[in-house]
Amino acid sequence: MLQMGSRPAPLSLRLACIALVAAVVSVIKYTSSNAQAAQANHLLPSMYQNVVVPFSSFRGPSTVAKAPTSPVWRAKFMGAAMGPSVPHKPIFRAAHEFEGAGNANPFPAPGASVFSVAGCIVMVVVMRTPLRRLLSRKSVSLFRLGHRYTVLEPSHPSTLRYGASLVAMAAVTGEHSETPAGGGATGSTTRLHMMATSGIAPPVAAKKPHTLQFGHVDGENRGPKPMDPPIETEDVYYWMRDDDRSNPEVIAHLNAENDYTTAMTKSLEPFQEQLYKEMKGHLQETDEDYPYPHGDYLYYTKTEEGKSYKVHCRRPAAGGPEEVVLDENVEAEGLPYFEVGTVKPSPTHQKLVYTVDTKGHEDYQMVIKDLQTGARIETVPGQCSGEAEWGDDEHLYYLRRDENHREYQVWRHQLGADTGDVLLLEETDGLFTVDIYKSQSGRFLMADVESKETTETAILDLETDGPTGAFQVLQKRKFGVKYDVGHRGEFLYMRTNRGSEAQNFTILCRPVAEAAAAWQPLEGFAYDAKRYVTRVLCLKDHLAVFGRQDGFTKMWVLAMGEQGHVVEKCTEVAFEAFPCTVQCSVNKLFDTHTVRVGYQSLVDPESVVDVDLNTLEKVVRKQKQVPNYDRSLYSTCVIHAKARDGTEIPVSIHYRKDLHKEGRPEPLMLYGYGSYGACMDPRFRIADLSLVDRGVVHAVANIRGGGEMGMGWYEDQGKYFTKMNTFTDFIDVADHLVSQKWTTPDQMAIHGRSAGGLLIGAVVNMRPDLCKVALAGVPFVDVMCTMRDPSIPLTILEWEEWGNPNERDYYDYMNQYSPVDNVTAQHYPAIFVTAGLHDPRVAYWEPAKWVAKLRDLKTDDNLVLLKMDMVAGHFSASDRYKYLRETAIDYAFVLEQLGLAPK
């Protein structure tokens, strides 16, 4: 249907459109062989072969040729030059000016012509009436063909996707002037400017037969009970896996995906820039954290306008000038990626250790610096995990990883020694990783050896045995028993689940000197099944207990006596706003009556709050400044959605009050995660303002598999053979939001990252009609293939999260939700996928395979785009400005799909 606002279209244009549609249909239906098309197909890079539409008949001369020195295509048609294109990115752009005098006109009669070049259909519309006389709006719908359409804008080409190809509309603009009578030759002069663009077809991934085996494989650790004989399946995209990230065919395919994404979002670039500027406008570029006391100094970090990274500083607590401890911007200069793992001064505060990742692989180098001179003392050879602890000023402890990226060894390094580093502890069981930390008192170095189900802690007494002492196991591992340990005075305190006895954790204690003594429940803090204890901070006279109750974070205070018992009843610290997040912040002192916490909500920027443990008085030291933000315009609430089994699922919501009307469906972004017992607590994010300020309701679903409602929410209801609850909860929350008129499926976007990307992948398979658009970041979508293979980093560790598909029961269950394995021939929403080539947690080939299979099987024309970061890993950009730019790209796509991008 031809639409020109309220004005009827001239006959010439209507005829042109009719001819255009006829020509398109002719081209698409044309199936006979054509020498020129075959030649073009042969010369194209392999990833673009077999997508060339055969040439149809032309009204004028046309040629297709390949430049002799580079893969650049040129085409000529009716005198219009088109080209050149970027190699491996055949996108054509050109402008040509034609002039005719009197009745002369270089064009044939008004109409439409279609031709194909390099796998693209290009249409040229010729009309004699200047477009400026036809257009009553900035843009008009030129024609509609089913649900496929194009928009013609003055001087701006627009594209029409047809099937697997992109169809480009040539926009013709012109000026028409009459020659004055008696002033020369009669007639008219028509000047036409023709702009033509053409985009590439989506990359078509090759299919190569490859057999996967689930179960017993000789020479491989497939778990304790693998199927024998194994089950075999086919994976035609397995070839995308390249552990070295150097296979030319794989890299070419990923580059083609990026080129396609760039081409398809080209028109959104101004909007992306607008969103980036909005987000940056909410960023306090020059800022300084509130200092925290540590030894004789006050430490803090600051940021400066135009600089991407933090500057670590300190000043004497007694007064004195600022010292720059570490300027990340200096360290990052000239590097494509830079991330700091840890920054810690030595016990005397004369030296500094910091770890840096310069590739995005999460492999760190450990650097030691003299804080008195500012000079580097040494860079420790080899790579570490990013964590390090001081023993004294001459000894450091750090972790090394195995070939599967698992932290498995604790090493001691002596500054300046020629004897080499000393291995102190090694964990050989692939289910376990090792972590190190010092007690708040500074007396003990703890080494936690832990799996998803079990903990074993070893301690090194730095006070008694010195930094060269050995670790002693505190309590041997027992399956299902998890714990961590703190210290104050003559007592050790254990936060533990005691197996199944205290699923939400309780606190035990015993004397330091009595290694054989039994752990006893802490008197005055009885186990409460409704209270989930997540952390215990041990101080000289108090225990500060952090946890959850009723779905949200809480803080309790215990006043302690010299004998290790509670002398006053447990007291909750009240915080006014709800829902909010309260978390333990940076606390370096042991002998103190003050604990620093961070406090924020979906609408409240983070505040630094000091809590007096004696009086429970709270002092706000600083609230993060957010330019161009008026807190009074926004509101937040918690609703509950009933899952299909009757369970109430909490949903945190925030919106802009002046753009929201109860009972009126509005655009909505629904975020979810639901794995590892992780909690999606309310947090303030400046990037989300660009959604909410456009009338988008922002919602976070606290689905099962997370830990928001306690460990049972995760262990009993969202893990192993109850994992399907995670996905159905999310679907039920979305349906509830629709039924309660918060939104509609056509107004809904869904978003998840990492394991949350698994959520998105499973949900769009199960309910593709749930939403308009899905955003999946570094998505864990190839669950079956990854979890069967112990050579893939972190796989064995994850068997205690998802299960092991080499065992029959898990194979059958996990195969129900693994996203790649459940893609079918059906309609899908628009999907935008982001990933990192060097991601050690979710390998790049998982999202690449998922996108390839979606494109191969889906039956709709909705976009599926993959944006692969060829530098960064799992956590995307560490540069704060680049991070905002990447977020702007994601949100521009979502908003455009929801109809909220500028026209």
Low-confidence stretches: 1-199
The total of helices stands at: 15
Q: Give the oligomer, counting copies of the same chain as homo and different chains as hetero.
A: single chain
Q: What would the CATH topology of the domain at 211-278 and 629-897 be?
A: Rossmann fold
Mean pLDDT: 81
CATH architecture descriptor name of the domain at 211-278 and 629-897: 3-Layer(aba) Sandwich
What percent strand?
A: 25-35%
Measured distance between first and last alpha carbons: 20 Å
Q: How large is the radius of gyration?
A: 32 Å
- In this structure, how is the largest beta sheet organized? 8 strands, mixed
CATH homology-level superfamily of the domain at 211-278 and 629-897? Alpha/Beta hydrolase fold, catalytic domain
Question: Can you describe this structure?
Answer:
- Among the domains are: 11-198, no CATH class; 211-278 and 629-897, Rossmann fold.
- Residues 1-199 have low confidence and may be disordered.
- It is 17% helix and 34% strand.
- The radius of gyration is 32 Å and the shape is globular.
- With 903 residues, it is of the alpha+beta class.
- Strands 43-44-46-45-47-48-49-50 form an eight-stranded mixed beta sheet, with helices on both faces.
- It catalyses: Hydrolysis of Pro-|-Xaa >> Ala-|-Xaa in oligopeptides.
- It comes from Eutreptiella gymnastica.
Produce a short descriptive summary.
Helix content is 17%, strand content 34%. It has 903 residues and is an alpha+beta fold.
